[in-house]
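Example S7 (C-alpha cells).
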C-alpha cells in the first residue's frame, strides 16, 4: 500500500492505497461524507469494493479519519462496459466538505493513477449529474461538470461520446476515459465498438 504525505492549510494528511478492507475497518469516516450514502454505509461499501478481485480504494486520511476517497472496480454487471475484459470503472470520488479546496481530490487521483496496473486497463468514469454535490459547492450543473472534467483531465482522462442510456439521460452527464499504455489495439477497438451500441448493434459477439 502506497502512502504519500499531503500538506494542506488544515494540516497534514496522508493519501493511501490501494487499501485492504481490514485496514479500512480500523478507520472512521468523516461525518460529512454523505454524497452517496450515510458514512457508515459508505464505509461498508468501500470495504466490499476493496475485497473485489479488481477493486481498489484510495483514501485521504487525517489521523484515524477518512476525509476523502476514490474507488475503482469492474463496471456494473448490467452495463455494456462489463463485456470488456480490460475495463475498470472509477466509481466514485468524494471529499468531505470540511476538507475541500485543499487539492485533496487532485492528489488522490495522482497517487491512484501512478499505480502501474492502471496502464493495463481502460479506465472510465460515468459522471452522473444527480450524484453531484451542487448544494455544498454552490456550483450549478454546468460549472460542476467543468470542474469534474478538469479534475479528471489532470490524470489523462478525456470526454468520450456514447449513447449509454445513463449518459444521454441528462445533457450534463459525461463519460470520460483513459487508455493505459499497455492496452492492445484489439482491446481499444473493442472499446470503440462499445461506445455506440445502437450504431453497431449487439457487440457481445466481438468478445
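Recovered sequence:
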Amino acid at each position: 500500500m502506497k502512502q504519500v504525505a499531503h500538506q494542506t492549510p488544515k494540516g497534514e494528511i496522508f493519501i493511501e492505497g490501494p487499501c485492504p478492507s481490514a485496514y479500512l475497518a480500523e478507520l472512521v469516516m468523516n461525518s460529512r461524507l454523505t454524497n452517496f450514502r450515510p458514512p457508515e454505509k459508505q464505509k461498508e461499501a468501500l470495504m466490499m469494493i476493496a475485497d473485489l478481485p479488481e477493486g481498489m480504494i484510495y483514501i485521504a486520511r487525517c489521523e484515524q479519519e477518512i476525509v476523502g476517497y476514490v474507488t475503482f472496480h469492474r463496471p456494473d454487471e448490467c452495463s455494456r462496459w462489463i463485456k470488456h475484459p480490460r475495463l475498470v470503472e472509477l466509481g466514485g470520488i468524494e471529499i468531505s466538505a470540511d476538507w475541500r479546496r485543499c487539492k485533496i481530490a487532485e492528489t488522490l487521483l495522482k497517487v491512484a493513477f501512478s499505480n502501474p496496473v492502471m496502464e493495463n486497463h481502460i479506465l472510465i468514469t460515468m459522471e452522473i449529474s444527480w450524484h453531484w454535490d451542487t448544494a455544498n459547492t454552490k456550483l450549478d450543473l454546468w460549472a460542476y461538470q467543468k470542474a469534474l472534467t478538469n479534475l479528471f483531465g489532470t490524470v489523462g482522462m478525456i470526454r468520450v461520446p456514447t449513447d449509454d442510456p445513463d449518459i444521454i439521460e441528462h445533457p450534463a452527464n459525461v463519460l470520460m476515459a483513459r487508455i493505459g499504455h499497455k492496452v492492445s489495439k484489439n482491446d481499444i477497438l473493442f472499446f470503440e465498438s462499445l461506445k455506440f451500441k445502437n450504431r453497431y448493434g449487439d457487440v457481445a459477439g466481438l468478445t
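Notes on this example. The chain has one domain: 2-206.
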